[in-house]
Amino acid sequence: MSDMLALKALKTLQAVHVDGVGECFGATRFVQAVTGQNSKHSRGMLHNARRSVKRGELAQQLLCRKALLPGEYVPVYVVTSEEAVKLLACVPHRHKPETPGKHKRTNKKRARTGYVYAAYSQGNGLKVGMTCQRSPMIRIRSLNTAVLNPFSLVDFVRCTNPCEMERFVLSVLQPWRAGDHNRELFRLSARAGRVLFAGIRAAVHRDNDKDKQLHIGRPHTTTLTRLRLLLHRM
User: Fold this and answer.
1) Which of 103, 96, 39 is nearest to 71 (CA)?
2) Contacts of 3 (CB under 8 A, 6+ apart)
3) Domain check: are 127 and 22 in the same one?
4) Rounded to an integer, what is the distance from CA 57 to the centroid of its chain?
5) Angstrom distance (rounded) from CA 129 to CA 116
6) pTM over 0.70
7) What value, to the nearest 5°, has the Cα angle with vertex 174 and ends 193 and 166?
8) pLDDT tens digits for 96-112?
9) Mean local confidence (pLDDT), 40-44
């Protein structure tokens, strides 16, 4: 299987002629073609292979010559096609290509459910934020430990991607931003916050009418314009 993968990768590379050896291929480019890593990671993998206790001696024997490749400014390690197959065995296990038929592990994280909320303070105005805690009230209580005029919760929405939802709400409220130093405070009343979140729920439920929980990507531009008009009319 390793032989087949190595030969398949070599077909995508440009060979150079080395006197006394014949056709050779760039070792870094070969590892990059096999593993799908970028050139920086591929060089690091070769470096680690040379230092390996188990296969370091073999890797050093294989990486014994350098040549100037097209597009390179300095000579780099090159290997023959036979040496490339042996070099693949020296690549750290976690960087080896996936063997067909084996289950592929994925490290994708599930989207965290959370809240996007609006809170109002007489001295600060309307604040919009997000939290993945059990309740937005927990976040409000922590905010009130460091302000003169405490915030009170105005409204909130529960969604599967609170970061995206928060970015959207903040983009809607840009014309009312309290200052460049703070992106989450706005010169709006508590009533404006309630109108805004009612409009968001109505817009989202049109697309997710079967779901009780909001599944937010990035709402359409027309939704943003419609919500701004709602606030302008107040």
Assistant:
1) 39
2) 85
3) no
4) 37
5) 6
6) no
7) 60
8) 444 445 545 555 555 57
9) 82
